[in-house]
Every structure is written in structure tokens, then in C-alpha cells.
Design brief:
The protein has 207 residues and is α+β, with helices and mostly antiparallel strands. The chain is built from 9 helices and 8 strands. It starts with a helix and ends in an 8-residue tail after the last helix.
Amino acid sequence: MITRRKLMTGVAGTLVTGALMPVSLRAAGGADGLELGDDGLHKQPWFMDSFLELGDDLQTAADSGRGLMVLWEQRGCPYCRELHAVNFARPEISDYIQEHFDVVQLDMFGSREVLDFDGEALEERALAGKWFVNFTPTTQLFHRDNAGATGLSAAESFRMPGYLKPFHYLSSLEFVAEGHYETQRFQRYLQDKFAKLREQGIDPDVW
């Protein structure tokens, strides 16, 4: 199957690469110091400049030993801002993401074309409806072992609908990246982590 990524890679030697690759949105610093794109979404330098072919994105991540994170946001979302300003500002979270996941950011009301795992091409807003993404931010995690899946149910490992505090967010990332999702429920995994922290005199709610 010829994907957009493969097509672009194949002709890169004969055309100017800059004209072929997706154009990154111009970033401007907001009043809060966060990077804001022309689409109104907050940005991180480690987000992928993806061709939005999700099966190919997951396979590429898996080939490098990582999973895929799909992050849904929307313009003016206060909890999306909180995710960037609080969670992603913590090195233990941002470093963990970069080590274990490639990140594709999608706009819940966007119009860019995305190729679903099942091969259907849809605008972002249509894909959000198909995948029952109703809140922002929503973080979907896809384990590397699920590369090659031909549908969302087989590809998706875990979903975080809405904003989670740093401890819960990092725990969710570890839950998938370390394969715990295959053997236990997240609530049980979280309870065990809570217990270990409290034994150390650490309050997870203020971590």
C-alpha cells in the first residue's frame, strides 16, 4: 500500500523537501508563555509532523519501540491549556512521553483528512464522532504491539477522556507503555501505586 509518507519519502530526492513535507503551523507565544499554533491549539516541540495516516504512524512508532498517542484538543479549551501548562511542563511526564510514544495532535472540530486504522479517510471532526471523542483533551494510547490492527477496537489500548492530574496522567502512560493494561484494570493498578506512595509518605493528590 502506498501511503502519503512513503510517497513523500520516495520523491524527496528529486524535489525540494520543504515543498513536500507538511507545513508546520506558525507558533506564537501566548501571554502565558505557551506555544500556540495558527489553529488555536497549544503545541509541543515533540509533537509529530504527521501525514495523519494513523496505521502507518503506529507502525512507524512500533518500529522504533514506541507506541502512539493521539491527543484531541480544540481551540479555547481551558483544560487543554492545563494539560500543557501543568502536565507537559513536568519533565518526568514530557520525558516519559518522548521515550515511549509518538504524539499526533488532532482538532476535534478540524477539517484535515485523517486515514483511520480501517483505511477510511475522514475529516478530523468526522473521525472524532466515529471514535466517540466527546471531550477535550482526550488522550488515546496505542501500544506498539497493536501495530497492524485494522480497526480502533483492536488498536486502542487505553483512553483518557478529559483532563487528568499529573500523577494520574503519568500512571496512565505507564499503564500502557509497560503493558499493565493487558493483565489488570487501571483502577487496580492505580490503587497499588497509591499504596506504594503512601508507604513512602507521599500524597498522590499533591504529587
